[in-house]
Design brief:
5 helices; 5-stranded antiparallel β-sheet; 233 residues; 15% helix
Length: 233
């Protein structure tokens, strides 16, 4: 859509690089030790975090560190919403949003917010969903969070595969390829998330199509310079 989100200051670079953080050498658990040689700097010495690297559907060497530790780019777990009128105070008409409709309700997720978080764990019309956005691929995909009778919550591993976001779920610590919704590492390897219908629209188009919809608010619980693009250039 070619929407310009503005230049970003050095402080914004620091936020992204801190979010992308330095990888650590793994020291925990047999699965982590096994993976450390093939994953190089991808694994992390973080207490309580020990994915089952013995189970995987892709070559572990295809997964590369993007910089951040797990959830160093924090997902939105407690979303708040704004009316279309209120959202027009911070969204320009041509700004892109991910539009989702479920259970007779519609919601817009501005890319100016998701570019800083990449994942929003939300529920709309009774459907638990993960709204995901990979800035490097410009891929906006929405998934149903229900898998095998339980509802998962997703975060960012800080790793990339084919330049695409690798997510993880907090219930099993499995790793998921954002572009396809496939579990590629861990307990749920071989499982695929159900993709939900979504569209990337301008905010103006969303207002026309869903006049009773609402919008993900900038009240995310995090301090980020929303409206600025940390990946420009």
């Amino acid at each position: 859509m070619g929407v310009h989100l503005g230049r970003w200051p050095l402080s914004a670079i620091a936020v992204v690089l801190a979010g992308c953080g330095a990888a650590h050498t793994a020291t925990r658990g047999p699965g982590t030790r096994e993976a450390s040689s093939s994953l190089r700097n991808v694994t992390f010495d973080i207490p309580g975090w020990d994915p089952d690297f013995a189970r995987h559907s892709v070559s572990l060497t295809s997964i590369l560190p993007g910089g951040p530790p797990p959830d160093g780019i924090p997902p939105i777990d407690h979303p708040h919403y704004a009316s279309i009128t209120a959202a027009s105070q911070f969204l320009a008409p041509r700004e892109p949003v991910i539009a989702v409709s479920a259970g007779g309700r519609a919601r817009a997720y501005p890319l100016q917010i998701l570019i800083w978080h990449e994942i929003a764990n939300d529920t709309l019309g009774g459907v638990p969903m993960a709204v995901t956005y990979c800035p490097l691929c410009n891929s906006a995909i929405v998934f149903d969070r229900r898998v095998a009778g339980r509802t998962l919550t997703f975060g960012t591993t800080g790793n990339l595969r084919n330049s695409d976001l690798v997510m993880w779920d907090r219930q099993t610590e499995s790793w998921w390829q954002q572009f396809s919704g496939d579990a590629i590492v861990g307990q749920l390897t071989g499982t695929r998330l159900t993709e939900l219908d979504s569209q990337t629209l301008s905010f103006a188009a969303f207002r026309v199509r869903y006049p009773r919809g609402d919008v993900l608010s900038r009240d995310t619980g995090f301090q980020r310079p929303y409206g600025q693009n940390p990946y420009q250039g």
